[in-house]
């Protein structure tokens, strides 16, 4: 009897344990497993950082621009610009639906675009829409009347937008994954809590079914999605913090995930030498640049010769080798190849000897009399090591001495933002393309000066001003080409390297296509073939 | 006893007020605001920043914010989270604290049981090979940082043997709890074992133990009732001090093993400058420390009759 009771207890305990241990996500069909960082926002109108990889599976924009520059319509069936170039008429596909079955209307789009511009939403994406007539004043809080913003739903499926001026890059911005609609009725009903899994509805290929903060995010196919149905039924994201690359590689090797988006630098060599992992490794050059930036507003950095000298004294191959085991590409120019106007042939020519000559010409032979300066970097992405290498290269090659100041991420971001009026010496910085248009680099980054380089050059400024409103595409790109020459010759910042995304993808995962602009990967197009 | 506890609880109020004041000051003095994004391409528009400051009362003078938050906290309103506006700080505490408490309780229970066992065995086999081995093992466990222990356990048991998941959390009674529980338990276990060994050795030579032996009391009874009970007093103090730190969760263990716990959330809140969450989590931590100390005193009271005199 005792034995039977014991056996029954063991059986009951095993059953209970197996029920408990069954994964919480029990989807049908194929599941795609990956690790992501905890998103700052689940609200797509507010996401302006890497978390877009999560929201871009749930929310769909009007269109997208492929890596080859061609436009593919998604929620829109057409986007037309008027002859004067000021009015954009967007026709929406009438079959578009939210994941609760309600139609996605032009009213939802009008509401969402104005919501992005509303300063109370505090969305970083407002800056993609400021060319719309009335948008800048509304976003700056100069008027509280949203009706002054020229975005109008003329019927259920037609949205008309007027821009302040001719804006050739506006189409690229409209096609950004950051510009998506939110369901007006749901947002107004639930307020800040509308993004909770029990309330949220989305218009993209997937819908959110569960989210446990800092633990997991699970999505299933949106049954009402009118576009091509995804082949994968469930996306299961485990949320990690700390060193996400480390967590991904461990989980990938233990067959717990199907896809890893990065590899810790110390493991790159091992992965490349491993017979299996090497076959599953995919490298994609990112459309972004790391650079050193001088405060062009004061001496000695307002002297072009000094900036060129520091640039020519840098061994970029050594940097790439240390920060990425050689997988990062040496950056010869600030604007990366692939962005119209960019041309690596514009890079300044010379070597360490030229650098010494330039520094002597600037009045500092062998670095004599050069003021001590501070190189400030963030405490991430290998920047402290980059700073040490730069310090060593400048000291050995030019005889000038930098002090390194490493700052915690948020403190660094706040500090750089505060350099609008306060002087500094040198920082390292990064820009990743938001969209494939030269305006994103020459306009947003350099002319609008988001990183506070304080670079002022009248020729450059007038060329950018001209290009911004050019209606002839050939002429527009040619103008940016001329601007690129000035930018490289002036060296307000010196390009260092471009990161390469290192993915590990299991062999049964097919068609996981990278979008090099934003490092996105639409899982909608991906299949699992075992 | 009741008046003693009441006195202790009342005495903790100034402690909590000091903790609140220091945390409030440090959080607000740290460079970087909650709205500076470390990863976004662009800085936030000043109008948007002003709107957010107004929404969360950050545009008020610091002393007004200080009193306002304190008044809310006293009434049970810990405010909204800046990092995730869809949930309140109270939601966050409810979501993340139980995981860390459960994990920490399991770890401290394991540490106490194993620590006492190892300590007694080491004391009884004093200066023999087993004692040396236990002492070496304990020194090893205390010296190794928890993040190394966690990483090594994950790589060997997860990636190598496939016995436990390398990342993520499926509950306390799942294989995903093994690595974090063991990692958290090793250091307190080693400390408890060493204290226990020393105390047992000290008590073993006391007169009352010798008398008990002379009276012919069984060896097991002497160990359990006479030696261990007396040796427990310092052990409880050590366990109590470890408990308060283990119970609220370790950032390293929770981050490396992927446990959605309080320790990990606290550090994420600091990185995000999520002031209400930073203050609330620190206060919860302070309350747990106060409670653990109180429990240690109560345990002393129950174990050692001599302390009852002091309490009265």
Describe the fold and architecture.
The complex is a heterodimer of chains A (530) and B (312). Chain A is α+β, with helices and mostly antiparallel strands and 530 residues long. In chain A, a hairpin with a 3-residue loop joins strand 8 and strand 9. The longest helix of chain A is centred in the N-terminal third of the chain and has 20 residues. The N terminus of chain A is likely disordered. With 312 residues, chain B is mainly alpha-helical. Helix content of chain B is 75%, strand content 0%. Chain B has 13 helices and no strands. In chain B, helix 6 runs parallel beside helix 10 and helix 12 crosses helix 13. The mean pLDDT of chain B is 85. Classes of the chains: A alpha+beta (530), B mainly alpha (312).
How would you summarize what this structure contains?
The complex is a heterodimer of chains A (530) and B (312). With 530 residues, chain A is α+β, with helices and mostly antiparallel strands.
- Oligomeric description of these chains: heterodimer
CATH domain class name of the domain at 288-498 in chain A: Alpha Beta
**What is the CA–CA distance across the termini of chain B?**
7 Å
Give the C-alpha Rg of chain A.
26 Å
Number of H- or I-type helical stretches of chain A = 17
CATH architecture of the largest domain in chain B: Orthogonal Bundle
Helix content, binned percent of chain B: over 70%
N- to C-terminal distance of chain A:
48 Å
| Number of helical stretches of at least 4 residues of chain B | 13
CATH architecture of the domain at 288-498 in chain A: Roll
Quickly give the structural class of chain B. mainly alpha
Radius of gyration of chain B: 24 Å
Helices and strands, with pairings:
The complex is a heterodimer of chains A (530) and B (312).
Chain A: H1 2-21, E1 31-37, H2 52-58, E2 63-65, E3 71-73, E4 76-81, E5 87-92, H3 106-117, H4 135-139, E6 151-155, E7 158-162, H5 170-174, H6 184-190, E8 206-212, E9 216-221, E10 234-240, H7 244-253, E11 259-260, H8 268-273, H9 275-280, E12 281-285, E13 288-294, H10 304-312, H11 316-324, E14 329-330, H12 352-361, E15 373-378, H13 383-398, E16 402-407, H14 409-417, E17 426-432, H15 439-447, H16 458-468, H17 473-490, E18 493-498, E19 500-505, E20 509-510, E21 527-528
Parallel strand pairs in A: 1-10, 15-16, 15-17
Antiparallel strand pairs in A: 2-3, 4-5, 5-7, 6-7, 8-9, 9-10, 11-19, 12-19, 13-17, 13-18, 14-18, 20-21
Helix pairs in contact in A: 10-12, 11-13, 15-16, 16-17
Chain B: H1 2-29, H2 46-55, H3 62-74, H4 89-124, H5 129-143, H6 146-160, H7 178-204, H8 207-214, H9 219-247, H10 251-257, H11 262-272, H12 275-303, H13 305-311
Helix pairs in contact in B: 1-12, 4-5, 4-7, 4-9, 5-7, 6-7, 6-10, 7-9, 8-9, 9-12, 10-11, 11-12, 12-13
